[in-house]
Amino acid sequence: MTARFWSLLGVLAALLAVGLSTGGQVYYFLFFAFVMVLLLSVASVLWTLFTVRVEMKGLRPRVERGDRLMTIFTVRHTSLLPVSAIRIVLCAPSAYSGTQEISVATPPYRKKTFRYLIACPHRGSYEVGIARFRCQDLFGLFSISRKSGQRLLRVDVAPKVHAVETLELKTQDMGPELRSRASEDTASPSDIRKWQEGDVLKKVHWKLTMRKRELMVRTYEESSRPDTLIVPDLSEIAALSDQALSIEDAICEEALSHAKAQLEAGYPVRMPLLAAHPAEIAGQFPQDLPMFLDALMRVKFDSPYAYEQVQMQMLRRITRTGGCVLVSCKFTTRIADMALKLARSGVKVKLIWITDSAREDALEMVERLKMENILVSLRNPWSDE
Protein backbone atom coordinates (compact mmCIF):
# COMPACT_ATOMS: atom_id res chain seq x y z
CA MET A 1 0.00 0.00 0.00
CA THR A 2 1.28 3.42 -0.97
CA ALA A 3 0.93 6.93 0.43
CA ARG A 4 -1.82 7.58 -2.11
CA PHE A 5 -3.86 4.74 -0.59
CA TRP A 6 -3.74 6.30 2.85
CA SER A 7 -4.62 9.70 1.37
CA LEU A 8 -7.61 8.14 -0.37
CA LEU A 9 -8.73 6.58 2.91
CA GLY A 10 -8.67 10.04 4.46
CA VAL A 11 -10.74 11.43 1.59
CA LEU A 12 -13.25 8.57 1.95
CA ALA A 13 -13.58 9.19 5.67
CA ALA A 14 -14.14 12.90 5.06
CA LEU A 15 -16.76 12.27 2.33
CA LEU A 16 -18.62 9.80 4.54
CA ALA A 17 -18.61 12.20 7.49
CA VAL A 18 -19.86 15.13 5.38
CA GLY A 19 -22.51 12.94 3.72
CA LEU A 20 -23.83 11.70 7.05
CA SER A 21 -23.90 15.19 8.56
CA THR A 22 -25.48 17.02 5.58
CA GLY A 23 -27.38 14.23 3.85
CA GLY A 24 -26.15 15.39 0.42
CA GLN A 25 -26.32 12.60 -2.17
CA VAL A 26 -23.35 13.93 -4.11
CA TYR A 27 -21.06 13.03 -1.21
CA TYR A 28 -22.39 9.46 -1.17
CA PHE A 29 -21.89 9.24 -4.93
CA LEU A 30 -18.29 10.37 -4.66
CA PHE A 31 -17.72 8.02 -1.74
CA PHE A 32 -18.95 4.95 -3.65
CA ALA A 33 -17.08 6.03 -6.80
CA PHE A 34 -13.80 6.12 -4.88
CA VAL A 35 -14.61 2.77 -3.27
CA MET A 36 -15.08 1.26 -6.75
CA VAL A 37 -11.73 2.71 -7.82
CA LEU A 38 -10.17 1.13 -4.73
CA LEU A 39 -11.67 -2.29 -5.45
CA LEU A 40 -10.74 -2.21 -9.14
CA SER A 41 -7.18 -1.22 -8.25
CA VAL A 42 -6.62 -4.08 -5.83
CA ALA A 43 -8.34 -6.55 -8.19
CA SER A 44 -6.16 -5.51 -11.14
CA VAL A 45 -2.97 -5.84 -9.11
CA LEU A 46 -3.82 -9.27 -7.67
CA TRP A 47 -5.10 -10.65 -10.98
CA THR A 48 -1.96 -9.57 -12.82
CA LEU A 49 0.38 -10.62 -10.03
CA PHE A 50 -0.89 -14.19 -9.81
CA THR A 51 -1.22 -14.82 -13.55
CA VAL A 52 2.09 -13.36 -14.71
CA ARG A 53 4.65 -15.83 -16.08
CA VAL A 54 8.25 -14.84 -16.73
CA GLU A 55 10.94 -16.96 -18.36
CA MET A 56 14.63 -16.04 -18.21
CA LYS A 57 17.31 -17.47 -20.51
CA GLY A 58 20.96 -16.81 -21.27
CA LEU A 59 22.67 -17.17 -17.89
CA ARG A 60 26.20 -18.59 -17.99
CA PRO A 61 27.72 -20.38 -14.99
CA ARG A 62 31.06 -18.53 -15.23
CA VAL A 63 32.05 -15.13 -16.58
CA GLU A 64 35.03 -12.83 -16.21
CA ARG A 65 34.88 -9.67 -14.17
CA GLY A 66 33.65 -6.78 -16.31
CA ASP A 67 31.63 -9.02 -18.63
CA ARG A 68 27.91 -8.54 -19.20
CA LEU A 69 25.39 -11.35 -19.23
CA MET A 70 23.00 -11.11 -22.18
CA THR A 71 19.70 -12.49 -20.87
CA ILE A 72 16.39 -12.96 -22.70
CA PHE A 73 13.08 -12.48 -20.86
CA THR A 74 9.64 -13.64 -21.96
CA VAL A 75 6.67 -12.11 -20.07
CA ARG A 76 2.98 -13.06 -20.29
CA HIS A 77 -0.12 -12.51 -18.14
CA THR A 78 -3.91 -13.01 -18.45
CA SER A 79 -5.28 -10.05 -16.48
CA LEU A 80 -7.95 -8.05 -18.35
CA LEU A 81 -7.73 -5.17 -15.88
CA PRO A 82 -5.04 -2.57 -16.63
CA VAL A 83 -2.01 -1.97 -14.41
CA SER A 84 0.76 0.58 -14.63
CA ALA A 85 3.61 -1.93 -15.03
CA ILE A 86 4.96 -5.30 -14.00
CA ARG A 87 8.27 -5.08 -12.20
CA ILE A 88 10.68 -8.01 -12.23
CA VAL A 89 13.02 -8.01 -9.23
CA LEU A 90 16.35 -9.64 -10.15
CA CYS A 91 19.09 -10.98 -7.93
CA ALA A 92 22.24 -9.77 -9.69
CA PRO A 93 25.92 -9.12 -8.89
CA SER A 94 26.11 -5.43 -8.07
CA ALA A 95 28.32 -3.11 -6.06
CA TYR A 96 25.43 -1.16 -4.55
CA SER A 97 22.51 -3.58 -4.19
CA GLY A 98 21.95 -7.27 -4.65
CA THR A 99 18.73 -6.65 -6.59
CA GLN A 100 17.71 -4.85 -9.78
CA GLU A 101 14.23 -4.03 -11.09
CA ILE A 102 12.99 -4.27 -14.67
CA SER A 103 9.71 -2.55 -15.57
CA VAL A 104 7.61 -4.26 -18.26
CA ALA A 105 4.26 -3.29 -19.81
CA THR A 106 2.49 -5.90 -21.93
CA PRO A 107 -1.16 -6.50 -22.95
CA PRO A 108 -2.95 -9.63 -21.67
CA TYR A 109 -2.57 -12.98 -23.44
CA ARG A 110 0.42 -11.72 -25.42
CA LYS A 111 4.04 -12.65 -24.93
CA LYS A 112 6.64 -9.94 -24.75
CA THR A 113 10.28 -10.89 -25.32
CA PHE A 114 13.15 -8.51 -24.64
CA ARG A 115 16.87 -8.57 -23.87
CA TYR A 116 18.53 -7.31 -20.74
CA LEU A 117 22.22 -6.92 -19.87
CA ILE A 118 23.36 -7.87 -16.38
CA ALA A 119 26.69 -6.29 -15.47
CA CYS A 120 29.26 -8.25 -13.44
CA PRO A 121 31.50 -5.52 -12.00
CA HIS A 122 33.20 -7.48 -9.23
CA ARG A 123 34.63 -10.95 -8.64
CA GLY A 124 32.75 -13.45 -6.51
CA SER A 125 30.11 -16.15 -6.59
CA TYR A 126 26.53 -14.90 -6.86
CA GLU A 127 23.01 -16.27 -7.05
CA VAL A 128 21.37 -14.74 -10.11
CA GLY A 129 17.77 -15.01 -11.24
CA ILE A 130 14.23 -13.74 -10.72
CA ALA A 131 13.50 -13.19 -7.02
CA ARG A 132 10.08 -11.49 -6.97
CA PHE A 133 7.33 -9.96 -9.09
CA ARG A 134 5.96 -6.53 -8.17
CA CYS A 135 2.84 -4.91 -9.59
CA GLN A 136 1.26 -1.45 -9.19
CA ASP A 137 -2.17 -0.25 -10.30
CA LEU A 138 -2.84 2.69 -12.61
CA PHE A 139 -3.70 5.05 -9.76
CA GLY A 140 -0.66 4.17 -7.66
CA LEU A 141 -2.74 3.00 -4.70
CA PHE A 142 -1.32 -0.52 -4.34
CA SER A 143 2.15 -1.94 -4.88
CA ILE A 144 2.15 -5.64 -4.07
CA SER A 145 4.87 -8.23 -4.65
CA ARG A 146 5.19 -12.00 -4.41
CA LYS A 147 8.00 -14.53 -4.70
CA SER A 148 8.69 -15.85 -8.17
CA GLY A 149 9.10 -19.45 -7.04
CA GLN A 150 11.97 -19.87 -9.51
CA ARG A 151 15.32 -21.36 -8.58
CA LEU A 152 18.27 -18.97 -8.56
CA LEU A 153 21.33 -20.02 -10.56
CA ARG A 154 24.91 -19.76 -9.34
CA VAL A 155 27.12 -17.47 -11.45
CA ASP A 156 30.86 -17.28 -10.74
CA VAL A 157 32.55 -14.00 -11.66
CA ALA A 158 36.25 -14.80 -12.04
CA PRO A 159 39.06 -12.24 -11.62
CA LYS A 160 40.47 -10.88 -14.86
CA VAL A 161 43.95 -12.01 -15.88
CA HIS A 162 46.25 -9.57 -17.64
CA ALA A 163 49.76 -9.90 -19.03
CA VAL A 164 52.61 -9.24 -16.59
CA GLU A 165 56.35 -9.74 -16.79
CA THR A 166 57.71 -13.00 -15.44
CA LEU A 167 59.80 -12.74 -12.30
CA GLU A 168 62.94 -14.40 -13.67
CA LEU A 169 64.58 -16.61 -11.05
CA LYS A 170 67.93 -18.31 -11.47
CA THR A 171 69.02 -21.51 -9.75
CA GLN A 172 71.22 -19.46 -7.47
CA ASP A 173 68.16 -17.41 -6.42
CA MET A 174 67.25 -20.06 -3.85
CA GLY A 175 67.44 -17.76 -0.88
CA PRO A 176 68.57 -19.41 2.37
CA GLU A 177 68.67 -22.90 0.79
CA LEU A 178 71.68 -21.88 -1.29
CA ARG A 179 73.69 -21.16 1.85
CA SER A 180 72.59 -24.41 3.51
CA ARG A 181 73.68 -26.41 0.47
CA ALA A 182 77.13 -24.82 0.44
CA SER A 183 78.22 -27.05 3.33
CA GLU A 184 76.81 -30.28 1.81
CA ASP A 185 79.10 -33.02 0.45
CA THR A 186 78.28 -33.05 -3.24
CA ALA A 187 80.19 -36.31 -3.66
CA SER A 188 77.68 -38.22 -1.53
CA PRO A 189 75.03 -39.97 -3.63
CA SER A 190 71.38 -39.79 -2.61
CA ASP A 191 70.47 -43.20 -4.05
CA ILE A 192 71.69 -46.14 -6.16
CA ARG A 193 69.88 -47.69 -9.12
CA LYS A 194 70.51 -50.01 -12.04
CA TRP A 195 72.43 -48.75 -15.04
CA GLN A 196 70.34 -47.25 -17.87
CA GLU A 197 71.23 -46.42 -21.45
CA GLY A 198 72.92 -43.03 -21.53
CA ASP A 199 74.43 -43.08 -18.01
CA VAL A 200 78.06 -41.96 -17.82
CA LEU A 201 80.70 -44.39 -16.52
CA LYS A 202 81.92 -42.08 -13.78
CA LYS A 203 78.62 -42.56 -11.95
CA VAL A 204 79.03 -46.35 -11.79
CA HIS A 205 79.40 -47.75 -8.27
CA TRP A 206 82.11 -50.33 -8.99
CA LYS A 207 82.21 -52.09 -5.63
CA LEU A 208 78.46 -52.67 -5.62
CA THR A 209 78.60 -53.63 -9.29
CA MET A 210 81.13 -56.38 -8.55
CA ARG A 211 79.09 -57.63 -5.63
CA LYS A 212 75.76 -57.81 -7.51
CA ARG A 213 77.37 -58.65 -10.85
CA GLU A 214 75.39 -55.93 -12.67
CA LEU A 215 76.06 -52.28 -13.30
CA MET A 216 74.83 -50.04 -10.46
CA VAL A 217 74.81 -46.26 -10.82
CA ARG A 218 74.95 -43.54 -8.20
CA THR A 219 72.18 -40.90 -8.36
CA TYR A 220 72.46 -37.42 -6.93
CA GLU A 221 69.74 -35.10 -5.72
CA GLU A 222 69.05 -32.44 -8.31
CA SER A 223 67.91 -29.05 -7.16
CA SER A 224 64.46 -28.18 -8.39
CA ARG A 225 63.51 -24.76 -9.70
CA PRO A 226 63.02 -22.13 -7.00
CA ASP A 227 59.51 -21.44 -5.75
CA THR A 228 57.68 -18.15 -6.18
CA LEU A 229 55.78 -16.98 -3.12
CA ILE A 230 52.81 -14.70 -3.89
CA VAL A 231 51.36 -12.96 -0.83
CA PRO A 232 48.17 -10.88 -1.30
CA ASP A 233 47.10 -8.54 1.49
CA LEU A 234 43.72 -9.88 2.71
CA SER A 235 43.19 -7.47 5.60
CA GLU A 236 40.00 -5.42 5.68
CA ILE A 237 40.03 -2.36 3.42
CA ALA A 238 38.86 0.90 4.98
CA ALA A 239 36.94 2.46 2.09
CA LEU A 240 33.44 2.86 0.71
CA SER A 241 31.77 -0.36 -0.43
CA ASP A 242 32.30 0.11 -4.17
CA GLN A 243 35.85 1.40 -3.72
CA ALA A 244 36.74 -1.51 -1.42
CA LEU A 245 35.40 -4.03 -3.93
CA SER A 246 37.43 -2.45 -6.75
CA ILE A 247 40.60 -2.58 -4.64
CA GLU A 248 39.91 -6.23 -3.73
CA ASP A 249 39.49 -7.02 -7.43
CA ALA A 250 42.82 -5.35 -8.25
CA ILE A 251 44.69 -7.26 -5.51
CA CYS A 252 43.26 -10.61 -6.61
CA GLU A 253 43.92 -9.93 -10.29
CA GLU A 254 47.53 -8.94 -9.69
CA ALA A 255 48.11 -12.08 -7.63
CA LEU A 256 46.42 -14.28 -10.23
CA SER A 257 48.25 -12.68 -13.17
CA HIS A 258 51.65 -13.18 -11.54
CA ALA A 259 50.77 -16.77 -10.64
CA LYS A 260 49.91 -17.42 -14.28
CA ALA A 261 53.15 -15.83 -15.52
CA GLN A 262 55.31 -17.83 -13.10
CA LEU A 263 53.57 -21.15 -13.80
CA GLU A 264 53.91 -20.67 -17.55
CA ALA A 265 57.62 -19.94 -17.07
CA GLY A 266 58.02 -23.24 -15.20
CA TYR A 267 58.36 -21.89 -11.65
CA PRO A 268 56.37 -23.55 -8.84
CA VAL A 269 54.03 -21.10 -7.09
CA ARG A 270 52.81 -21.00 -3.51
CA MET A 271 50.10 -18.57 -2.45
CA PRO A 272 49.18 -18.36 1.26
CA LEU A 273 45.72 -16.84 1.78
CA LEU A 274 45.77 -15.72 5.41
CA ALA A 275 42.14 -14.66 5.79
CA ALA A 276 39.85 -15.52 8.72
CA HIS A 277 39.84 -19.07 7.32
CA PRO A 278 43.46 -19.49 6.13
CA ALA A 279 44.43 -21.65 3.19
CA GLU A 280 47.40 -22.14 0.89
CA ILE A 281 47.33 -22.85 -2.83
CA ALA A 282 50.32 -24.49 -4.51
CA GLY A 283 50.96 -25.42 -8.11
CA GLN A 284 53.79 -26.38 -10.44
CA PHE A 285 52.23 -26.40 -13.90
CA PRO A 286 49.99 -24.06 -15.94
CA GLN A 287 47.21 -26.64 -15.57
CA ASP A 288 47.12 -25.75 -11.85
CA LEU A 289 46.00 -22.16 -12.54
CA PRO A 290 42.23 -22.92 -12.06
CA MET A 291 42.96 -23.69 -8.39
CA PHE A 292 44.40 -20.21 -7.91
CA LEU A 293 41.56 -18.61 -9.88
CA ASP A 294 38.85 -20.34 -7.85
CA ALA A 295 40.51 -19.52 -4.52
CA LEU A 296 41.00 -15.83 -5.38
CA MET A 297 37.44 -15.58 -6.68
CA ARG A 298 36.01 -16.74 -3.34
CA VAL A 299 38.51 -15.42 -0.79
CA LYS A 300 37.25 -12.82 1.69
CA PHE A 301 39.20 -9.81 2.85
CA ASP A 302 38.74 -10.42 6.57
CA SER A 303 42.24 -11.31 7.72
CA PRO A 304 42.81 -10.77 11.45
CA TYR A 305 46.51 -10.09 10.75
CA ALA A 306 48.12 -6.86 9.65
CA TYR A 307 50.11 -7.21 6.43
CA GLU A 308 53.36 -6.61 8.30
CA GLN A 309 52.61 -9.68 10.45
CA VAL A 310 51.95 -11.73 7.33
CA GLN A 311 55.30 -10.64 5.89
CA MET A 312 57.01 -11.65 9.14
CA GLN A 313 55.46 -15.12 8.89
CA MET A 314 56.65 -15.43 5.29
CA LEU A 315 60.19 -14.49 6.37
CA ARG A 316 60.29 -17.61 8.54
CA ARG A 317 59.35 -20.00 5.72
CA ILE A 318 61.41 -18.92 2.72
CA THR A 319 63.88 -21.82 2.78
CA ARG A 320 63.13 -22.80 -0.82
CA THR A 321 61.77 -19.47 -2.00
CA GLY A 322 63.51 -17.79 -4.90
CA GLY A 323 61.05 -14.98 -5.52
CA CYS A 324 58.34 -13.21 -3.55
CA VAL A 325 55.51 -11.06 -4.93
CA LEU A 326 53.84 -8.77 -2.39
CA VAL A 327 50.46 -7.27 -3.31
CA SER A 328 48.83 -4.68 -1.05
CA CYS A 329 46.84 -1.46 -1.10
CA LYS A 330 48.80 -0.26 1.94
CA PHE A 331 52.34 1.04 1.78
CA THR A 332 53.93 1.96 5.08
CA THR A 333 57.45 2.16 6.44
CA ARG A 334 57.04 -1.21 8.18
CA ILE A 335 55.90 -2.89 4.95
CA ALA A 336 58.88 -1.41 3.11
CA ASP A 337 61.28 -2.58 5.85
CA MET A 338 59.88 -6.12 5.71
CA ALA A 339 60.32 -6.13 1.92
CA LEU A 340 63.95 -5.11 2.44
CA LYS A 341 64.48 -7.96 4.93
CA LEU A 342 63.08 -10.43 2.42
CA ALA A 343 65.38 -9.10 -0.30
CA ARG A 344 68.45 -9.18 1.94
CA SER A 345 67.75 -12.82 2.83
CA GLY A 346 68.47 -13.73 -0.79
CA VAL A 347 64.94 -13.62 -2.23
CA LYS A 348 64.04 -11.67 -5.35
CA VAL A 349 61.18 -9.37 -4.28
CA LYS A 350 58.51 -7.56 -6.26
CA LEU A 351 56.11 -5.18 -4.49
CA ILE A 352 52.82 -4.19 -6.13
CA TRP A 353 51.10 -1.20 -4.57
CA ILE A 354 47.39 -0.83 -5.39
CA THR A 355 46.68 2.90 -5.34
CA ASP A 356 45.37 5.75 -7.46
CA SER A 357 47.27 8.52 -5.70
CA ALA A 358 50.86 8.25 -4.55
CA ARG A 359 52.04 10.29 -1.58
CA GLU A 360 55.37 12.09 -1.78
CA ASP A 361 56.82 10.24 1.23
CA ALA A 362 55.65 6.93 -0.25
CA LEU A 363 57.33 7.71 -3.56
CA GLU A 364 60.58 8.30 -1.68
CA MET A 365 60.25 4.84 -0.11
CA VAL A 366 59.59 3.39 -3.57
CA GLU A 367 62.85 4.85 -4.85
CA ARG A 368 64.65 3.51 -1.80
CA LEU A 369 63.34 0.01 -2.51
CA LYS A 370 64.35 0.24 -6.16
CA MET A 371 67.90 1.12 -5.09
CA GLU A 372 67.91 -2.18 -3.16
CA ASN A 373 67.02 -4.06 -6.38
CA ILE A 374 63.38 -4.55 -5.35
CA LEU A 375 60.91 -4.36 -8.20
CA VAL A 376 58.06 -1.95 -7.43
CA SER A 377 54.98 -1.28 -9.54
CA LEU A 378 51.83 0.80 -8.97
CA ARG A 379 48.38 -0.36 -10.09
CA ASN A 380 45.34 1.90 -10.33
CA PRO A 381 42.33 -0.13 -9.09
CA TRP A 382 39.94 1.87 -11.29
CA SER A 383 41.89 1.24 -14.46
CA ASP A 384 42.00 -2.01 -16.45
CA GLU A 385 45.44 -1.25 -17.80
UniProtKB/TrEMBL annotation:
Parts of the chain that traverse the membrane: 31-52
> Record keywords: Calcium included?
no
For whether the record's keyword set contains Metal-binding, the answer is: no
Keyword annotations from UniProtKB, A to Z: Membrane, Transmembrane, Transmembrane helix
Give all residue intervals belonging to the DUF58 domain. Answer: 191-357
Q: What is this protein called?
A: DUF58 domain-containing protein
Q: What species does this protein belong to? A: Candidatus Pullichristensenella excrementigallinarum
Q: Top-down, what is the taxonomic lineage of the species of origin?
A: Bacteria, Bacillati, Bacillota, Clostridia, Candidatus Pullichristensenella
